[in-house]
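Hey, resending since the last one bounced:
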Amino acid sequence: MPALTIIANIVVKPEHLEFVRSELLTLVEITKTETGCINYDLHQDKENPNHFIMFEKWQNRALWKKHGTADHFTAYVQAAEGKIDSFTVNEMNLLTA
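The structure tokens again:
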């Protein structure tokens, strides 16, 4: 089964920027230790600091789905509730290497 790439776009409400940024950084550190996580990289837009992209690579979709039920992920979701303007997730297949 091929690896799965995830692109998550997160736009934070300006008044919650520092709080959500801190929560995301905590999420990254814990997630990088999960089984199946190849990389879990957080990026912040240089022109719009409220826009983050999480670039993730997982060994397979099943392990990524398991991540979505992990205690640290659900804790992040609860902490960020009401503080996010928009959130989209795209599951991507690698076409070139």
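The first helix runs from residue 17 to 31.

Sorry for the duplicate.
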